[in-house]
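Q: What would this chain look like folded?
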Amino acid sequence: MKQIKTIAFLLLLSLLNSFSMSAQSNITGAWSRQDGLSTITLLFQDGYYSYTKYDVAHKVFSFTKGGSYTVAGNQLSIKYLFHTAEKDVVGTSETMSMSVSQKTLGLIVNGATETYKRVDDSKSQLAGHWLITGRMNNGNMQTITPGARRTIKLLTGTRFQWIAINIETKEFFGTGGGTYTFVNGKYTENIEFFSRDSTRVGASLSFDGKVEGNNWHHSGLSSRGEPIHEIWTRGL
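A: My prediction, written as structure tokens:
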């Protein structure tokens, strides 16, 4: 009898873990909704999350926040690594109820339901949570070891966002994002928001790109017209 109870418990635990992983998989990707003239975009990828509010037409960046996330049943838990509107929130956690279907995501925030429409489901070779680990300087590739100060790049199936932060001092250095394509080794970004310089909104930048294992080699000209060659690593 004891053995049967043990087996039943293990089966239940396996079922709960499977349900949790399924829910997390279902939420993976990009979601958006309109708030007046502004667009709010959510990215969920490889256990990391970002929320960004911006107005493309008027080139206004409002704020961004995000960090790591987990899903348990219908509960979404977020631990904030950055928050441009409320710095003191960094390091804290928040849990909210959610409902997710193939096309919509509902989040209950402060008693009200926010409904987002699915933008993509992260089916892309570049979909991932990336950290910059190398940059060419004077002809030499210099290794960058991610620490408290880090530059993150989240890519889903069609959308990207980079975030430069310090998770210990809670400093925020900048962010930008929008849509992207990756075809035949050519990576192209279409910028929809840029915290440092709103004049970059609407620009498209193309780079040569290739993925070798967990490393993404990224080279071309930056938004300032300067040559760059970077290595980004997935899964750190």
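The mean pLDDT is 89.
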